[in-house]
Design a protein that fits this description.
The protein is mainly β. β9 and β10 form a beta hairpin. It is 7% helix and 37% strand.
């Protein structure tokens, strides 16, 4: 194996030298200016004092073309490995996934929806703000007043974001929860129903409001739940503006059943954080609790789970695992733009109401959040991937009928545009019950609980860790070697590893961090068979990719 790697490196160095002296190599020329239909972020509104990158740069209508791009320059260690860009066929932002009778549906912002049978290639069911979008039946019926409070930006420009679909057992309906939004704080949650996951969905009600002031609070249902005195004292600043540092922006809803069959809605973005409300299964409407300040429960907005002080936490999704009894709260950090550092993190709790904590038993509440939460994915390049992934987030989770768990998300790319596509990757649970995400898009891989023969596991790995910083840096692999005596050697330090026949579980100690995960056989993005490990330690995810001789 050492001889093979050294030859690859030598070939790569020769190739790099040849490019360096050849006309036209180097930067490869400037990118053409992206055309409008290649963009995924519209020109931002003029930001207010509290505005954040993700709030002011709203991902606009889904592009219809896949842009041509300059592939990410590959390090020499990738020499001899096939690389590929895969195409999803659609561009759906904030994809919330739902499975029904063997068909997978994703529902995304800007009324974009698609379906698939293999979790890799997708076809639109509906797309864009139009009365002809067959996913909706009455969304633009002005007599209903769906956009009277928020979401109508004028000139036929609307903002309908982050829908989520669940089958309501009591109602016998597919219920879609979504949001309409006008600013980074003024939004409304609403829901619609259908007899089919492909629609059409009929709007039923606006159910929660944020961003109100003393001048328009009467246009909401807030005073139906709390007194005017309480609302003004609690939700508004002294001048009558909305106190967004403490209270939520009502967007990004997802609804789920807990272990006892009760329905809950988790929601929120930046602003006052992530909140939880129980849902009445008979009506689909929120059940407003009594105020319990000691446990961070508000009568109107519900229970605060994470965040506050306008830190970049959004897109919450809760998945219950009946095998280990934990509730997992997946969220996105950072700005959603390509260079905004968007990334996926996860917390867990023993009860649906929390507390949701990370690997260190901590959670971010009304404080800086960067160090909190197990980071699953951000910006990265792996062998077999032609163009690096950037700003991975807007996630949803589901358990398939065969018991496998998957994470669905959108990703941008290292191609100087804001174009994005959906991706689906399987995730597993390590020995301690933490999710560990497979490094590549799913292609039918199955975790062998009896493990892989140890002699097959030794050798050179492309090793990547998910550092906790929120930024534009692309994490790239280094070479490490797992030796048969249980030691690890690499560019920076030495360590140890465990794993082998009889168990899928593994550990690797590297750079003073112990990562715990699993070994799994799968295919890289170019379709080449690989052995991978995916692990977690000290709130950082780690991947290793090994090509057998």
């Amino acid at each position: 194996m050492k001889k093979r790697i050294s030859k690859q490196v030598i070939c790569g160095l020769l190739l790099a030298f040849a490019c360096a002296v050849s006309a036209g190599c180097g930067n490869g020329g400037k990118m053409d200016t992206p055309t409008p239909d290649m963009q995924a972020s519209s020109a931002p509104e003029t930001p207010t004092q509290d505005a954040s990158p993700t709030d002011s740069a709203d991902p606009d209508a889904t592009p219809t073309k896949t842009p041509s791009s300059t592939p990410t320059p590959t390090p020499d260690i990738f020499a001899g490995i096939a690389k590929k860009d895969i195409k999803a066929g659609v561009s759906v932002h904030d994809p919330s996934i739902f499975v029904d009778n063997g068909t997978y549906y994703i529902y995304g912002s800007h009324m974009a929806n698609a379906k698939s049978t293999d979790l890799r290639t997708w076809k639109y069911c509906g797309n864009g703000y139009s009365s002809t979008n067959r996913m909706f039946v009455n969304l633009f019926d002005k007599s209903i007043g769906i956009f009277d409070y928020a979401g109508d930006k004028g000139n036929n420009q609307y903002a309908v974001w982050a829908p989520h679909v669940i089958y309501n057992r009591a109602m016998g309906k597919y219920c879609m929860y979504m949001c309409t939004s006008s600013t980074y704080i003024k939004s409304s949650l609403c829901f619609a129903t259908s007899d089919s996951p492909e629609g059409p969905f009929k709007w039923e009600a606006n159910i929660l409001y944020s961003g109100f002031t003393k001048l328009d609070i009467d246009k909401t249902d807030v005073l139906d739940v709390v007194s005017e005195e309480y609302a003004k004292k609690t939700y508004l600043k002294s001048g009558g503006a909305y106190e967004n540092m403490k209270w939520p922006n009502c967007i990004d809803p997802t609804v789920f059943y807990d272990e006892d069959g009760r329905m809950w809605m988790v929601y929120g973005s930046w602003s006052g954080g992530i909140f939880l409300l129980e849902i009445d299964e008979q009506t689909g409407l929120p059940i407003h609790p009594g105020t319990d300040a000691e446990n961070e429960v508000d009568a109107y907005f519900g229970r605060r789970l994470l965040g506050g002080m306008h830190t970049s936490i959004e897109g919450p999704y809760i998945e219950y695992n009946p095998e280990n009894g934990y509730y997992y709260l997946f969220v996105s950090y950072g700005g959603l733009e390509r260079t905004g550092g968007y990334q996926m993190r996860v917390f867990r709790a023993e009860k649906v109401t929390g507390p949701y904590v990370d690997m260190n038993g901590e959670r971010p509440v009304m404080a800086s959040h960067t160090k909190y939460g197990l980071k699953l994915s951000g910006n990265y390049l792996l062998p077999g991937i032609k163009t690096a992934y950037m700003a991975t987030g807007g996630q949803s989770s589901f358990k398939d009928t065969d018991g496998k768990y998957y994470l669905c998300f959108h990703t941008r790319f290292d191609n100087k545009t804001e174009y994005h596509e959906p991706r689906v990757q399987q995730y597993f649970f390590n020995k301690e019950g933490w999710p560990v995400l497979a490094p590549y898009c799913t292609s039918g891989e199955t975790l062998d609980k009896n493990g892989i023969e140890k002699s097959k596991l030794t050798g050179t790995y492309y090793f990547v860790t998910q550092k906790l910083a929120i930024g534009s840096t692309i994490e790239k692999p280094v070479l490490i070697e797992l030796k048969e005596d249980g030691t690890v050697t690499g560019e920076k330090t030495e360590g140890t590893w465990t794993g082998g026949e009889g168990t899928c579980y593994m550990t690797i100690t590297y750079d003073n961090t112990v990562y715990s995960g699993v070994f799994v056989r799968m295919k890289d993005q170019a379709g080449t068979d690989v052995i991978c490990f995916t692990a977690a330690g000290d709130n950082k995810g780690a991947w290793g990719v090994h090509y057998e001789k």
